[in-house]
Write a structure and sequence with these properties.
6 helices; alpha/beta; 23% strand; 17 strands; 319 residues
Length: 319
């Protein structure tokens, strides 16, 4: 008799679990409209120069991170524009901003997340759709990470894999040396040329990809919070015809990139409407105030190596 009385309760629980499973499954991707415009806002050097440093300030939005394929569409459009304008060849070094890879953690979620008005609203969707994995990640983490950092750790291994595949393939397709910005990862490491993560402290991880799509040299790893050191770190990248230096101070301050011989660096930062990174994890400092934008879409700046660069560079938005 008791078994018969339990049947309605079990049926109700099964129905509730089925409803939750159906609700929590990611919905349709919805419509994706991307602004693929890009503008060359600064060019320096002679056309005869064989090598150049191309600085890219991409305009990105949460919807560009629906999947690695969506982000690739945006970045490929920028590189196509550069190639059509004669700004890319086998001696080109392309530099992207820091943290361009961190937001790959947004991939594969329901469409409502990408229209969220704040990171806290986006986190609510992430928590509802990933509650069990989130709880397990928090229990396995060292210390007591906040919600944003736990989400970052939960997605870390997939983010690392997507990042390496995406930017490695771009470097290989366009036959360029690609300074692929950076991403925040817990205890990143390389095993047989493949990027993996651990459960330890967060680091700002900045690799470089060669024209064959493989990692070039040793990636720079910067402890988080880097702002506590007060000391800028410099990453050097050497190619056959060009030497490029990237200076970083803190995981949220815009990095500065320059080729050998330049007196001042060019600020690298993300344009668009991505959420402030300090809202995701406390290990990053305050973001720079946004200034007036001089042109829509993504911005390109190229420095050709045969001319001694001047120190009069365009205004560095975001500083």
């Amino acid at each position: 008799m008791r078994k018969l009385q339990l049947i309605p309760t079990l049926l109700i629980l099964a129905a509730l679990l089925g409803t939750y499973a159906n609700w929590s499954a990611p919905g349709s991707a919805g419509h994706y409209l991307a602004d693929l415009r890009s503008t060359l806002i600064h060019e320096e050097g002679t056309l005869e120069a064989k090598a150049n440093l191309l600085v890219v300030r991409p305009e990105l939005f949460p919807s560009d991170y629906r999947s690695p394929e969506h982000l690739r569409l945006k970045l490929a459009a920028i590189l196509d524009k550069a190639r059509d304008n004669g700004l890319l060849n086998e001696h080109s070094v392309v530099a992207l901003p820091d943290q361009i890879g961190t937001w790959l953690l947004l991939g594969g979620e329901r469409s409502e997340l990408y229209s969220a008005r704040s990171l806290s609203e986006a986190q609510a969707w992430l928590v509802l759709d990933n509650s069990h994995q989130l709880a397990w990640t928090w229990l396995q983490s060292e210390g007591f990470p906040g919600m944003g950092e736990t989400l970052l750790r939960m997605k870390a291994e997939k983010t690392a894999r997507d990042y390496q595949q995406l930017f490695g393939s771009l470097a290989r397709e366009y036959r360029i040396t690609l300074l692929a910005g950076s991403l925040l990862l817990p205890e990143p490491r390389l095993e047989n040329g493949t990027l993996h993560t651990g459960k330890g402290p967060l680091y700002n991880f900045a690799p470089v990809f060669g024209p064959d799509g493989n990692l070039l040299g040793t990636p720079q790893t910067q402890a988080c919070p880097a702002k506590a050191t007060g000391q800028a770190t410099v990453q050097e990248v050497h190619t056959e015809k060009l030497k490029v230096l990237v200076s970083r101070q803190g995981c949220r301050s815009p990095s500065l990139v320059r080729s050998a011989g330049m007196q001042t660096g060019i600020a690298l930062f993300l344009r668009g409407r991505l959420w402030p990174l300090e809202d995701l994890t406390e290990c990053c400092g305050q973001s720079a105030p946004e200034q007036e934008r001089v042109a829509p879409g993504s911005h390109l700046l190229t420095i050709r190596s045969s001319l001694e660069p001047s120190t009069d560079l365009p205004a560095e938005e975001g500083q």
